[in-house]
Amino acid sequence: MMRVLVVDDDPSIVRTLQINLRIRGYAVDTAVDGAGALRAALRVRPDLVVLDLGLPDMDGLAVLAGLRSWSAVPVVVLTGRDDHAAKVGALDAGADDYLTKPFHVEELVARMRAVARRRLSGPSGVSAVRIGRFLVDVADRTVTPPVRLTPTEWHLLEILVRRSGHLVTHRELLREVWGPAYEGSTNYLRQYVTQLRHKLEEEPSRPRHLLTEQGVGYRLVP
Amino acid sequence: MMRVLVVDDDPSIVRTLQINLRIRGYAVDTAVDGAGALRAALRVRPDLVVLDLGLPDMDGLAVLAGLRSWSAVPVVVLTGRDDHAAKVGALDAGADDYLTKPFHVEELVARMRAVARRRLSGPSGVSAVRIGRFLVDVADRTVTPPVRLTPTEWHLLEILVRRSGHLVTHRELLREVWGPAYEGSTNYLRQYVTQLRHKLEEEPSRPRHLLTEQGVGYRLVP
DNA sequence: TCAGGGCGTCAAGAAAGCGTCAGGCCGCGT
DNA sequence: ACGCGGCCTGACGCTTTCTTGACGCCCTGA
Fold first, then answer.
1. Which nucleotides of chain D have an atom under 7 angstroms from any protein CB?
2. Backbone torsion region of residue B7, taken as left when φ is above 0, otherwise alpha when ψ lies between -120 and 50, otherwise beta
3. Class of domain A128-220
């Protein structure tokens, strides 16, 4: 049985999620503030955390950091529509995915499943994924059928493959491939994402695997 | 955990290997003579054997034969630099790979990994590959139809053949052929890769087997 | 619906990596 | 001593890759 901890200061949201998730077979614990969330997480050791960033007593990012200091539990973050900075910050701080309010429960469940599945496949992530008609093997540095990729293209693709299905922020990609000094230059990403799409997507202008998350980053879905 | 049996009559070599292999996560048993080696092999059933051919009490080949009479365990043989006959004999007797003393521990580990991997992937041991109209046999050190290769050319080709299909980095090639001090000088590689292509490729300027992976290394595809 | 920022795409110059050639050095056998 | 084959080395031009700026479209939020 999958054990989920729901953290939100709005009791009606907590109740709604609790009911809907239980119907779907999850064991649900709840908390309405940051301190309670950390206590509950320590006590019940949830398999997954749904965390609202807009808590009354402490910053959602602080809760996330507190969690991450001792646990690798998957976290799905809830944000307000405009809280863009918090959203990106949460992902950089180790959140696994996010959802903007208001949202449909089905969508949350879908994200939860995706996140949980991803964690199962090990901390080092996957090394090979199928992208359309291509098989990309990061360990072997091969694509079949053969496609020529430049070093930078490989570097970028490798990160996305290792975290396939997972949203990776602009900052993470830039820092990893070009270094910390380039964290603002998304034009590099635009350039190379375009190139990768032209080499790996059937319709580069209508990507089905290398997806854009506007204002946040990119996500590779097999 | 991979269990390795190290057999050598020189205690200092045994000790060095024991320490270095344990650091790298192998479980290590040791023996200092042939009789002990066979006893140990029977007892611990190692996943891999590192066997020195110059043992005091019995011929290394006899040990290998004894092993092979009941086990298909991968064996990496250690030989003196000039002991060419013994080396060839060992390969004929069922050794999987050899290394001449003195050697770097990293190289031994690399060979061990390669041998273990080869065993896993079935009988596709890469000691011989077809390159265009040539058959390159690393174990025999022959190319048919005959091609004259210089020692350095052969050394380079041997590494690529043993790992055919896989990417080999500049650094690995340089370290293997010229030594660790030359890891930055890719101009050596450029020179000798060109020579190999002129001897083995139909169109040296349009290589179809000895391929460049820009910025990274080379890959030999049969 | 409109404005603004984010994004995809293109093109061109700069930089880096690579293949190739030629010459010098050294050790070997004659 | 001499020629030869193999190795080392630097130089050159070419190709690939990276960088950078510009432009127009699309999505988002007001």
1. 5-11, 16-22, 27-30
2. beta
3. mainly alpha
Backbone region of residue A125 per phi and psi (left: phi > 0; alpha: psi in -120 to 50; beta: other values): left
Superfamily of domain B3-121: Response regulator (3.40.50.2300)
Q: How far apart are the first and last CA of chain A?
A: 27
Rg (CA), chain B: 18
CA proximity to A108, closest of A28, A217, A212? A28
Token digits of residue B78: 């250690």
Q: Give the separation between CA B5 and CA A216, rounded to whole angstroms.
A: 52
Cα separation, B21 vs B24, in Å, equals: 5
**CA angle B178-B184-B187, nearest 5°?**
75
Return chain A residues 78..97 having CB < 7 Å to nucleic acid strand D.
Answer: 81-82
C18 C1' closest Cα residue: B190
Tens digits of residue pLDDT in A20-68: 899 888 899 999 988 989 999 888 888 899 998 877 666 788 888 888 7
Asked whether residue A187, judged by its CB, lies under 7 Å from any atom of the DNA or RNA strand D, the reply is yes
Candidate from A13-27, A176-190, B43-57 with smallest mean pLDDT: B43-57
Do the first three CATH levels of B3-121 and B128-220 match, i.e. the same topology?
A: no
pTM of the entire structure?
Answer: 0.66
Domain range list for chain B: 3-121, 128-220
**Ramachandran class of B94: left when φ > 0, alpha when ψ lies in -120 to 50, beta otherwise:** left
The answer to whether B206 CB sits below 7 Å from nucleic acid chain D is no
Alpha-carbon torsion, ordered B25, B29, B32, B34, to 10 deg:
-120
Backbone angles phi, psi at B48, to 5 degrees: -160, 145
